[in-house]
Amino acid sequence: MKFAFYPGCLVLQRMPEYELATRAVLSALGIELNIVQQAACCGSPVVESFTTDWVYLTAYNLALAEQMGHDVMVTVCGGCTNTLARGLHALQNPDVRAEANRRLHPLSLSVAGRVAVKHLVQLLAEREDDVKARIVRPLFLRSAQDRPLRVALTNPCQAFRPGDVMGTGDDDPMQPQRMHRLVELTGAEVVEYGGEDECCGATLYLSSPKLSLAAGRRKLEAVQEADVLLHSCGNCHLLLRRFQRMIIHDEQGLRKQALFFPQLIGLAMGLSEEELGLREGTLVAPP
Amino acid sequence: MDHPKDCIECGTCVTVCPVEMVGGHAIVTFLANPDAVDYSAWLCTSCWRCHEACPTGVNIYGLMMEQRRRERAPTGYGKALEYVLASGLALTVFQEQLDQVRASWGLESVELPPLGLAQILLRTDG
Fold first, then answer.
1. Which of A45, A107, B37, B72 is deepest in the core (most CB within 10 A)?
2. What's the pTM?
3. What ipTM does this complex have?
4. CATH level 3 topology of A2-122
5. At a CB cut-off of 8 Å and minimum separation 6, what does A131 contact?
6. CB-nearest partner of A215 from B22, B40, B121
């Protein structure tokens, strides 16, 4: 089975290990990904903040996936999923679609609005039984193998809300459970904390670094009993991993490894650290 | 900014807002209190919780984006827009560097969007 793959600008250049782990896990499930060539920025929140024309940028990206002949475009970033899905929704309006096609015409592209946009978490949630069947061993912390691994997760919030457009089915958009359930399949224990359903605050960095880091600190302080942090979004990675140093300076007690969701699932499936882009190693016990 | 007529000022949006939780004042401050002036439509994590939680279905996200187009943008957003207009991507990405980074991870190279794409697709007076 082959799907189109849209990493988004952030993951494309800054987080190749996330793409690698995603490909490895999906490959184990019989899914190959074809990256969308010449893809542009999804359009939000940046472009949408300045113009209603953001929808034509997403139309371009969707048109590229259609041209490749795919029915599904897989995303790994909350923001991109949200924007592409809302753009797709807007394109169901014939007037919007007609204007989109007028603008796409000089690029020799057209959009019909028939490619579904799915975030990795949603894709795996739809295949929960397959994922479960491929998990070969439960996960533990290297230094504490007598108890389950404790994972604090952050949902890719923009991939679930607004619920009426993002298609969450019977999963509550305010407290989506699908990522939580998938993590539990690995034998890990999901640490309950209020912030699982709150936003990491990464996008706020564009307008207020101070408030963004404050939101990050709030989250890091709430998950002290976790062994690792888990997320499935480029923005979350920025905050939980790259900004972690800026948030907590030298407070060692708050430092936690932040893993990408497919890295955890992949380890439970018996994939190697190498295949999952875990070059600096991990506290999670290897196969 | 006009206060939306469907808003009953219940304040639910404020209680779920991550910006408000760390002491910032987002558009929800204005929704809960139409007399408020100390807020910014740019302070937002795009989590959509307010929009989802609103009991009367106010299109909070849409209103916020409309308001942004009337207010001056913070530097971070302005810069990111410049990059999109120049290259089609919101970050600086150079083909050679991209190819090198990807190759070092065993990933194939990817073509960047064509020049002038933003000028064809966007009219920023939107």
1. A45
2. 0.95
3. 0.94
4. Glutathione S-transferase Yfyf (Class Pi); Chain A, domain 2 (1.20.1050)
5. A29, A124, A182, A185, A265
6. B22
